[in-house]
Amino acid sequence: MAFTHQHYTLGLDYGTNSVRSLIVNTRNGEEVASATFNYPHGRDGIIEDARKPDLARQHPWDYLQGAEETVTKAIQRAKNKQANFSPNQIIGMGIDTTGSSPMPVDADGRALIEMKAFSNHPGAMVWLWKDHTAAQEAEEITCAARKSCPEFLQHCGGNYSSEWFWAKLLHCIKTYPELIETMHSWIEIADWIPAVFTNKIKNPVRNICAAGHKALYHEKWGGYPDTDFLGNLHPDLVRIRKSLEGSQVQGVDRPAGKLSAEWANRMGLTEGIPVATGALDAHLGAVGCGIQPGSMVKIMGTSTCDIIVTPMERELPYIPGLCGIVPASVLPAHHGLEAGQSAVGDLFHWWVQTILKGSEHTHESLTTQAQQLQPGESGLLALDWNNGNRCLLCDPLLSGLILGQTLQTQPYEIYRTLIEATAFGARMILERLQSHGIVVSKIIACGGLAEKNPMLMQIYADVTGRDIRVAKSSQTCALGAAVAASVAAGVHTDMNHAQARMTGTLEKGYAPSKRSSVVYDALFELYCQLHDSFSGEGNRSLPLHQIMKKLVTIRQSPGEGIH
Predict the structure, then answer these.
(1) How far is CA 39 from CA 36, 95, 165, 300, 530, in A?
(2) How do strand 8-14 and strand 18-25 relate by DSSP bridges?
(3) Across-strand partners of 498?
(4) How many whole angstroms separate alpha carbon 369 and alpha carbon 356?
(5) How many helices (H) and strands (E) would you count in the chain?
(6) What is the mean pLDDT of the chain?
(7) 8 Å CB contact between 307 and 337
(8) What is the mean pLDDT of the segment spanning 528-533?
(9) N or C: which end of the chain has fewer CB within 10 A?
(10) What is the distance, to the nearest Å, from the Cα of residue 398 to the centroid of all Cα atoms in its chain?
């Protein structure tokens, strides 16, 4: 392909409620134009069922309509911004999506919802990542693996999740038998969308990111779980597994195919440009942050996702509690490690919009008051499990706790305490990694929380004892997809080279305060006591009543910790 002097790639970021298109200059990472499309089906793009609160589905046509509308809008905005811009200068596109977000397809690769008989069938839709209807099936898979294939669980933190590929498929098979005769395969939208754009729906490329982290794919056992294991769960799983065998499984730096004439015309792009292999949003968000060994990327929103990479030349031990360890899932020649927390921004939002609803308190006013407090001054401590614990306990049945309230406790004190609790949860993950030889010397944060709340970022630096930088881009997932596209298109030789040119962090960062860290070290020990007492893990033995008294000691000498 002959490149013009100025060339661009396009990143498509499929989130939970909307899709964003981003046009990026491959030479310097300049974000030329973007556009967003909110999914029209359901409530905020999510199709729900009041009788089944764990159900969350999406309509696949929203993804295709969103691509067409956002890409054409972004191109027009780029033309308005730069007189010499031409869509012919876009030489590749990349795609990230939520996950595990699979759906059933027929033998021709068509979405079942395309058929009249299933046009409104909930089982024929996309099973969004946050659909938890498969909790029982996830437990079945976990128990079966513990008995016969414990190595499966060693690569997904010890428990298989209701959010993931095989659990959702098993629930679909058991719940919707009317789909089984027509269903030929089960595909992640991160694979289906590139397959649609490249006219390869009958033989789609599968991405190693979703396959490894969500579908138990690993070269150690020959790819996907074997037919004996799956057959013992349900015979139809064996049939679906066979449909996956002909697919190429690969990383984001390789093309999934070339853009078809139809979709080039619909989006206003050049036919035949490479479409990079898809990936999960958080993993390409880490790429867009410039992730490298020694750093952790924290994608911070309603929940958080933590991504770490280490060279594959080193064999990693089993690290219990992580969401997964998968070779080449983020960067080629590197293990990709994933962890995270179930409630972060959601936790703060709960306090402001549910508990304090109708009051004069806002996130801004509470932050202004809370930042005047010294660490430990409130005498409060909390557990951040209001939406269960994703890592390291992998237990959705755990719940939140606030300890140490008095009749003088103020709303802004609790607000700060909830922020501190999420920071302690983040430190738990870091310490688990460190105990298994994974060194994280700095944190790169991205997302709305990282950009908008300096107090939160400083608390995280003080609690974790690590420097924190904020990603330069506010659209790191879409940027990561554009980075992958630049490599798939051949404009950059590899992901490292592309990241060096196209990603970066803001100049201002957050360094830990030694004085604050002393207090947070003491509070973290108490957090660990609560963590172990209410989770039933660990061997810390401090009686719970002593925690209240130690909080009083810290409150009476703020800024000094326990002596």
Answers:
(1) 10, 17, 23, 22, 41
(2) antiparallel
(3) none
(4) 15
(5) 20, 23
(6) 94
(7) yes
(8) 93
(9) C
(10) 21
